[in-house]
Automatic annotation (TrEMBL):
Swiss-Prot/TrEMBL cofactor(s): Ca(2+); Zn(2+)
Residues at which Zn(2+) 2 binds: C85, H233, H237, H243, M251
Homology family: Belongs to the peptidase M10A family.
Domain of life assignment: Eukaryota
Record has Cytoplasm as a keyword: no
Domain Peptidase metallopeptidase: 120-278
GO-annotated molecular function: metalloendopeptidase activity; zinc ion binding
UniProt source species: Silurus meridionalis (Southern catfish)
Manner of cofactor binding, per the entry note: Can bind about 5 Ca(2+) ions per subunit. Binds 2 Zn(2+) ions per subunit.
GO biological process, one term: extracellular matrix organization
Record-listed Ca(2+) 2 binding positions: D173
Name of the protein described by the UniProt record: Peptidase metallopeptidase domain-containing protein
Record-listed Ca(2+) 3 binding positions: D192, G193, D212, E215
Length: 510
């Protein structure tokens, strides 16, 4: 009966919501504001003629690696709404052309540095710079933040003639600070809460980098925004670097997760060396991204936890994924580690992901156990892994696109009323038939079907009573499949003992 109800309700409004698929994007009406904020349109003349807007859209599309159509199509609006750096893109095009020119004509750096054209980015006229962390983000302790920032500066000093020193007090050249909303550098620089503009910085010699305090900053988890990556990018601006149109460049304006490629592209290195020369030691040093991921995890784990020391990491910060196996054991994933919490609330120590599932990447974005086939499914980037116990099934990892599933999903869970796997991504959800490994017809659909469930959930668990718990950061939402809506919500670390984060000792069965 429940199943029928769900199917009927889901079918009734298929037609209603087919058109609302891309609501995670910007409203076309807000696009001009966006183009003004990021320097594609002049803010002064507030009415722009159609030609100017088209040309601005084309420039934006070019820098963002979208098809250059000049139209505000859905991909363009979607891109405009994705997390990025708050610094304007204006000028980055010209700066890039000059860089490319110098690479091809082989002009010496000395010559370039003396050239008379005005560099919008400016530069410091010294190689030794000092910095200071003015205040701190929530949910991360000072030790790991300090290490992350030190590494972010090292990234640049390892490939250039620069040297950095941290000072805890007094005047420094560069200052990093966390602010919320408007913070005394103009309304156009006001922070916008989670997502959107994550941080911004000023070109030399102002030396300020500001981070949106409302973001969920993290170092090792795949959910939230990585503070090391964002500081490394913002530090680039404080040194005089503009945005890069090179897709894999650290100075590209959009937020990217740490991938397999080296963090600094040839374009980042060329840009910083044109301003400050090569490292005095000679060779350029870059460490592999995989090693950076491990290092960040170690910084977090080495730190004395804030608050209740009996609680593991995932209870104080965000986690990447959560699921429950056939025995009612909850599994929580974060970075390269996972924890288990048995149905008797017995919580394990952190275990390396690769020890149980050796072929998985460093971390995963979504995980789900399916009672239908008794298998674990993992999602990360463009791929899906399927395990029988600890053995990877033949044919996996599979490309998500082969299964009609999205890249970088928010979460995945087996949904008993449909008998299929459900995958959330942004404003839509997908339904994966585990037998055919293809999407069910009529999907993806809008998240509005899950009345009350927020966008960007990082995991979901079905409990024995059939209720579904969605998690996002410290909040949970309880969804009742019979009523097809959220019937309760709150802070999961305080209320849901079975997540292993209750402040009672693990021997108390709740
Ligand atoms: C910078 O170089 C040093 C010395 O070679 C190395 O130990 C360090 O890991 C490098 N740091 C980064 C961020 O690449
Ligand atoms: C459930 O527990 C049994 C016995 O401890 C174990 O053999 C089995 O692998 C567990 N099942 C799952 C899905 O973890
Ligand atoms: C909890 O797990 C540990 C190790 O897996 C085991 O030694 C202990 O007996 C368990 N405690 C309870 C109450 O099940
Ligand atoms: Zn930037
Ligand atoms: Zn600011």
């Amino acid at each position: 009966m429940d199943l029928q109800l769900v199917l009927v309700l889901l079918t009734v409004d298929i037609l209603l919501s087919l058109s609302e698929a891309v609501s995670a994007s910007l409203n076309p009406g807000d696009a001009e504001g966006f183009l003004e904020k990021y320097g594609y349109l002049h803010q002064k003349d507030h009415t722009h003629n159609a030609d100017k807007v088209t040309s601005a859209v084309r420039q934006f599309q070019w820098l963002s690696h979208l098809p250059v159509t000049g139209r505000l199509d859905s991909t363009t609006l979607l891109k405009m709404a994705s997390p990025r750096c708050g610094v304007k893109d204006r000028g980055s095009n010209e700066a890039w052309k000059r860089r490319v020119n110098s690479v091809f004509t082989g002009q010496s750096q000395q010559h370039l540095r003396k050239k008379r054209y005005t560099r919008p980015g400016g530069r410091w006229y010294k190689q030794h710079l000092t910095y200071q962390i003015v205040n701190w983000p929530r949910h991360l302790s000072q030790g790991p933040v300090r290490l992350a920032v030190r590494m972010a500066f090292q990234l640049w000093s390892n490939v250039s003639g620069l040297v950095f020193h941290e000072l805890n007090e007094g005047q420094t050249d560069i200052r990093l600070a966390f602010y919320e909303g408007e913070h005394n550098d103009g309304t156009s620089n006001a922070f916008d809460g989670p997502g959107g503009a994550l941080a911004h910085a000023f070109f030399p010699c102002r030396g300020e980098a500001h981070f949106d305090k409302a973001e969920r900053w993290t170092l090792s988890s795949h959910k939230g925004h990585n503070l090391f990556l964002v500081s490394a990018h913002e530090i680039g601006h404080t040194l005089g670097l503009e945005h890069s149109p090179v897709r894999h460049a650290l100075m590209s304006p959009y937020y990217k997760k740490l991938g397999r490629s080296l963090l600094l592209s040839w374009d980042d290195i060329t840009a910083v060396q044109q301003l400050y020369g090569k490292p005095s030691a000679g060779a350029v040093v870059q460490i592999p991204s995989q090693d950076l991921s491990w290092a960040m995890q170690d910084w977090e784990l080495s730190e004395e936890p804030m608050g209740d020391i009996s609680l593991p990491h995932y209870c104080r910060n965000t986690f990447d994924a959560i699921t429950m196996d056939g025995n009612g054991t909850v599994l929580v994933f974060r970075g390269g580690l996972f924890w288990t919490v048995t149905s008797e609330s017995n919580r394990s120590d952190p275990l390396p992901l690769k020890r149980r599932w050796p072929q998985l990447p460093f971390a995963i974005e979504a995980a789900a156990f399916s009672p239908l086939d008794g298998k674990f499914y993992f999602f990360n980037g463009k791929h899906i892994w399927r395990y029988s116990g600890t053995v990877l099934d033949p044919g996996f990892p599979k490309k998500s696109s082969e299964c009609d599933m999205p890249r970088h999903p928010d979460c995945a869970f087996f949904y008993a009323p449909l008998g299929h796997m459900v995958v959330f991504k942004g404003s839509r959800y997908f339904v994966l038939n585990l037998e055919t490994l293809r999407s069910e017809p009529y999907y993806p659909r809008g998240l509005a079907d899950w009345k009350g469930v927020p966008r960007g959930a990082n995991g979901a668990v079905t409990r024995a009573d059939g209720k579904l718990y969605f998690f996002r950061e410290q909040q949970y939402w309880r969804f009742d499949p019979r009523k097809l809506r959220v019937t309760g919500s709150g802070q999961w670390t305080k209320k849901l003992a079975w997540t292993g984060c209750h402040r009672t000792s693990s021997n108390d069965v709740l």
